[in-house]
Design a protein that fits this description.
The protein is an alpha+beta fold. It has two helices and five strands; from the N terminus they run E-E-H-E-H-E-E. The chain is globular and about 40 Å long.
Length: 111
């Protein structure tokens, strides 16, 4: 199962749902997928470059996927972020793997 793309649904900040394909062989994370498809205006997602040092890539996970546990950095960042929900995660911390086929997320409002 190499070079497998997965299908994920990303709802942007305007409420439009995009069905996109994400490669699982490039170690991409959700924030990078959002940026590569330009689903958020330039400079509004992934401002820190994926270091879990800002919350600009916060997403709400809508599907019932088992995600990797939060790191302390991610947990601490979300503790200070706006619009945090129980299902909030930082997109930069969710790496695209075949297990995430069908993932559904919504990009959190800009703070």
């Amino acid at each position: 199962m190499e070079n497998q793309d997965i299908n994920i649904k990303i709802t942007d900040r305007e409420g439009v749902t995009h069905e996109v394909q994400a490669p699982t062989d490039m170690n991409m994370n959700l924030m990078e997928v959002i940026r590569s498809y330009e689903l958020a205006p330039e400079g509004t997602v992934g401002i820190c470059g994926g270091m879990a040092m800002c919350a600009s890539c916060q997403c709400y996970v809508k599907s019932d996927h088992e995600l990797p546990e939060m790191t302390d950095d991610e947990d601490a960042m979300l503790a200070e972020a706006f619009y945090v929900e129980d299902n909030s995660r930082l997109g930069c911390q969710i790496h695209m793997t075949p297990e995430l086929e069908g993932l559904e997320v919504e990009i959190a409002p800009e703070s």
